[in-house]
Design a protein that fits this description.
It contains two helices and no strands. With about 60 residues, the protein is mainly alpha-helical.
């Protein structure tokens, strides 16, 4: 049985301390962009959700 020796090394760039490279400020922006893209793909679903949330809030708040 012949065995081959291969070295498995992890490059320094994949170090666990260097994983967090993106700033935290990009998360809300990307979430907003994702929601806008979903709204362009499925406008009926987003409209029904907005109507439902508005109906429930209007019913529970009863501002009149």
């Amino acid at each position: 049985m012949a065995s081959t020796t291969e070295e498995h090394t992890v490059p320094e760039s994949r170090n666990e301390t260097q994983v967090r490279t993106a700033p935290c400020e990009s998360t809300p922006k990307s979430a907003l962009e994702h929601f806008q893209e979903y709204g362009r793909e499925r406008p009926g679903v987003v409209a029904l959700w907005c109507f439902g949330v508005g109906f429930v809030l209007g019913w529970k708040l009863k501002l009149w």
